[in-house]
Automatic annotation (TrEMBL):
<dbReference type="InterPro" id="IPR032861">
    <property type="entry name" value="TAXi_N"/>
</dbReference>
<dbReference type="InterPro" id="IPR032799">
    <property type="entry name" value="TAXi_C"/>
</dbReference>
<dbReference type="InterPro" id="IPR034161">
    <property type="entry name" value="Pepsin-like_plant"/>
</dbReference>
<feature type="active site">
    <location>
        <position position="276"/>
    </location>
</feature>
<keyword id="KW-0732">Signal</keyword>
<protein>
    <submittedName>
        <fullName>LOW QUALITY PROTEIN: aspartic proteinase PCS1</fullName>
    </submittedName>
</protein>
<dbReference type="Pfam" id="PF14543">
    <property type="entry name" value="TAXi_N"/>
</dbReference>
<dbReference type="InterPro" id="IPR001461">
    <property type="entry name" value="Aspartic_peptidase_A1"/>
</dbReference>
<feature type="signal peptide">
    <location>
        <begin position="1"/>
        <end position="20"/>
    </location>
</feature>
<keyword id="KW-0064">Aspartyl protease</keyword>
<comment type="similarity">
    <text>Belongs to the peptidase A1 family.</text>
</comment>
<dbReference type="InterPro" id="IPR001969">
    <property type="entry name" value="Aspartic_peptidase_AS"/>
</dbReference>
<dbReference type="GO" id="GO:0004190">
    <property type="term" value="F:aspartic-type endopeptidase activity"/>
</dbReference>
<keyword id="KW-0378">Hydrolase</keyword>
<feature type="domain" description="Peptidase A1">
    <location>
        <begin position="52"/>
        <end position="407"/>
    </location>
</feature>
<dbReference type="InterPro" id="IPR021109">
    <property type="entry name" value="Peptidase_aspartic_dom_sf"/>
</dbReference>
<dbReference type="GO" id="GO:0006508">
    <property type="term" value="P:proteolysis"/>
</dbReference>
């Protein structure tokens, strides 16, 4: 997640034994002992609606927890209080001292550097949120077990102080940090490839750790786009994000007139494009957003009735909203919005382009907002592709080849073929 767009959410987890590909396994176990490599690729089923969540077990004896799967965050964290996770009921739980490399060099990419508690000499970590709230806790280690994989010691933030977000009210016990930073779950477990497919229909999905071609009995038509790396650190560039190059946007067949300079990071690093499973909707920098807003409005004139309330901005960033009569389906003729990445395209269609705002009525109409938001209003210095626009796309993060793959897939059917019937 990006700190300014954290949206907590509900989840459920199921999993099944994965089939192995011995060739791939033997190659990889020789190189790096890891969660993904010591054993067959691991498939998990997850549910989503506002965030993607997976269930896993933590500690000894294992405690079941649900965590948000977040490719935009580094440090995993758990709420270390009843009824989420009880650190002192776990014999494998251990807090980390300030003198540990995990509190120092390994923590270099965290958005807020850890502090040292001068009384306890424990490493203190903090999280901050869009609403300016923050919470703190202790950096700690315990055994995490995802699906049928072996449990591995994992460093995480054991969050104790009062936490003002609605995560408190949901079943979510924490967040699994999946970016490329030194303390992420991915890095700690040496996972080099993982992918997921989120169904558009029933809020379910599949998460797969490892190479899909060795586990999935059908071919997934991936197109890949290279991960963007920069040589030198820049203030607004998140070097541990999954950053890709957006080259253009089409609405229907119309290519938006967006100058290339707006789509590439500038000298401050602002303007990178991140694929982020921890953010719900997508955000575009102002000039690109304005071009999209104007062309989408133009092409849907006559199909959709504008809300026409300049002060109405959903979640502070979504200011293109419409009135649609209750129980009337979204018109099928709405043009798709195509995100053109270098080497791969993602097409966002129909109901994924509009989101019904809960509790808003205008006469007999419901209020629906366009699901692309303006980064400048948040504010956010990046393009963010959220998970709402990754529905019915198999998304693969491949660190060995430094690329992200996208394949249009009916994820509900794919889940069924993998034995996760509904
Ligand atoms: C999320 O899912 C729950 C349970 O299926 C549902 O009640 C709720 O309305 C959903 N929330 C959103 C924002 O879609
Ligand atoms: C944890 O989840 C597993 C798998 O769903 C289940 O078999 C086990 O009984 C659960 N344990 C607890 C303590 O709830
Ligand atoms: C530092 O540790 C002490 C002893 O465990 C604790 O009482 C105190 O609240 C901690 N300070 C902070 C700022 O968390």
């Amino acid at each position: 997640m990006t700190t300014s767009t954290f949206i907590p959410f509900l989840f459920i987890l199921l999993f099944s034994a994965a089939k192995s590909n011995p060739v791939i396994l033997s190659l990889r176990t020789k190189k790096i002992p890891s969660l993904a490599l010591m054993k067959p690729p691991n498939k998990l089923l997850f549910h989503h609606n506002i965030s993607l969540t997976v269930s896993l077990s933590v500690g000894t004896p294992p405690q079941n927890v649900s965590m948000v799967l977040d490719t935009g965050s580094e440090l995993s964290w758990l709420l270390c209080s009843k009824p989420k996770f009880h650190p002192f009921a776990s014999s494998s739980y251990s807090p980390i001292l300030c003198s540990s490399p995990s509190c120092r060099s390994q923590a270099r990419d965290l958005p807020i550097p850890p502090n040292c508690n001068s009384t306890s000499h424990l490493c203190q970590v903090s999280l901050s949120y869009a609403d300016a709230s923050s919470s703190s806790g202790t950096l700690a280690t315990d055994r995490f077990r995802l699906g049928n994989s072996p449990s591995l010691p994992t460093i995480f933030g054991c969050i104790s102080s009062s936490y003002s977000s609605s995560v408190e009210d949901s079943n979510t016990a924490g967040l699994l940090g999946m970016n490329r930073g030194a303390l992420s779950f991915i890095t700690q477990t040496s996972t080099r490839r993982f992918s997921y497919c989120i169904s558009g229909r029933d809020s379910s999905g599949v998460l797969l750790l490892g190479d899909p071609s060795s586990t999935v009995p059908f071919s997934i038509p991936f197109n890949y786009t290279p991960l963007v790396e920069i040589a030198l650190p820049l203030p607004y560039f998140d070097r541990v994000a999954y950053s890709v190059q957006l080259e253009g946007i089409r609405v229907g067949s119309v290519l938006l007139p967006i100058p290339k300079s707006v789509l590439v990071p500038d000298h401050t690093g602002a303007g990178q494009t991140m694929v982020d499973s921890g953010t719900q909707f997508s955000f575009l920098l102002g000039p690109a957003y304005d071009a999209l807003r104007s062309e989408f409005s133009r092409q849907t004139r006559g199909l959709l009735k504008l809300l026409n309330e300049p002060d109405f901005v959903f979640q502070g960033a979504f200011d293109l909203c419409f009135r649609i009569p209750e129980r009337v389906p979204i018109p099928r003729q709405i043009p798709p919005v195509v995100l053109m990445f270098r080497g791969a395209e993602v097409s966002v269609t129909e109901e994924r382009l509009l989101y019904k705002v809960a509790g808003e009525r205008r006469g007999l109409d419901a209020v629906w907002c366009f699901t692309f938001g303006n980064s400048d209003l948040v504010p956010l210095e990046a393009y963010v592709i959220g998970h709402h626009h990754q529905q019915n796309v198999w998304v693969e993060y491949d660190l060995d080849k430094s690329r992200v793959g996208f394949a249009p897939v009916r994820c509900d059917l794919a889940s069924q073929k993998l034995g996760f019937g509904n």
